[in-house]
Amino acid sequence: MARYRGPRLRVVRRLGDLPGLTRKEKRASGKRANPPGQHGAARRKRSEYAIRLEEKQKLRFNYGVSERQLLRYVRRARRISGSTGQILLQLLEMRLDNTVFRLGMAPTIPAARQLVSHGHITINGRRVDIPSYQCRPGDEIGVRQNEASRRLVEENLQFPGLANVPSHLEFDKNKLTGKVNGLVEREWVALQVNELLVVEYYSRQA
Hints:
Ribosomal Protein S4 Delta 41, Chain A, domain 1, 5 strands
């Protein structure tokens, strides 16, 4: 199941901040600052497998992809020359739902996915309702020219999920159009994750 419908702060307490999943942050102090569960405060030393699993779960929950989808992305990244971990992050970051989120058109990736799947977003003037669509350099991302779509995006722009638009994107707030100028650079990935551990987790499957 790709979409997580449970309590988001519970996931954040376990995995750390996930800017794509929610704008809420775990409390800095108090009893709920620990991982969830009866023994969250007294966690024993984690195994190497547990550490790799946690890094993999960060990607799954942050980008809202299923286990099967993530495995496909890892296999695809392995077929492309270069650092498999960085290519994996690029593939996830260049998804249409994430790109809409990074442009500020939606406060979270789940909200951006809903915008896309409901047909409010266009690519190069054509409506695209596939959240996993891979954006390419030169693509122009816009909003359908109707009052409902524009009002939704304008409301979201008042409370964007992240403050800064990454360097590979540009956005015109007046026209509500964005443009993909290149591939995302590693330092602009907002999620704190060790992508190499994710690749190691899937080493026997990919």
